[in-house]
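Appendix B, record 7
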Amino acid sequence: MPRHISFVFPGQGSQSLGMIDNIDNSLINQFRPIVESSLDFDLLDIVMNGPVEKLNQSSITQPAVLLTSYLLYQDLMNSMDIKPDIICGHSLGEYTALVVGNSLELEEALKLVYKRGLFMEECLEGSMYAILNCELETISKFCEEVSKKSNMVVSPANINSPNQTVIAGNIDAVGEVVTLLNNHGVKRCIKLQVSVASHCELMSEAAIKFKNYIGMINLKMPDIKLIHNYNAKTSNDIDELKLNMINQLIHPVQWAKTMEYLHKKNSIVIECGPSKVLSGIAKSNNIADIISTSMDNYVDKLKDLI
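Structure tokens (predicted):
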């Protein structure tokens, strides 16, 4: 009996210059007209040649990572006869999943995430830290204490695994929580190189603007089972699907719950994107069989599993 197969798609932070260099030029050229008609700047040139500061702007990063992940997916489809049973993406990666699930056309997806990035850039500057080897309950307690005392925003943003939670919010509030955690004995608090604080209340204005914009987008229900970040569940209709995408901006990514669901399915998990970030997180969630398209000879390794 064929193994259960899940595709996961990464979000911001996975980008790097030249991340499409190993993709066949004929495949890139196949989608080049769509990319060029979607955006009023040369996305492919930025991905290949930079500058890196431009690539790392949220409004550029988001379509760049989505496009790269989708091209890698198409490259894998051309190499193997394989069909996903479940698709999901981490934060921005959920939009790649929507394209793969035929819920959203690539052209509209590129426009949508570009706008999403712009809306996020217009929000108050914030900070994000990855907290390692500390229970979520402790992290949440310190976040609540600082929020109440300072009247600022700080909260869990990415609940990635039992030993990794990312917090986000106002710069000073996040810094105070990190200090409290350090004093509590938590040694590994890693500052993320971002200027926007995703998946927290600082994104409220972006969520309002995004709600108005996504209302004009032609979405269909995915034809592959898609697990959402907001609640680690599927949507029942288009209205719920759109609401899940809006809620994702201001609520934490429930990635640990998503990984728990895939673990119960004994799924082969394929990270399809320009890095191995989600592969590491999958391992910390007890996923036994994880393959990344950034691995050497990943097609051969995948064939051995299937």
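Remarks on this record: DSSP finds 13 helices and nine strands in the chain. The chain has a mean pLDDT of 96.
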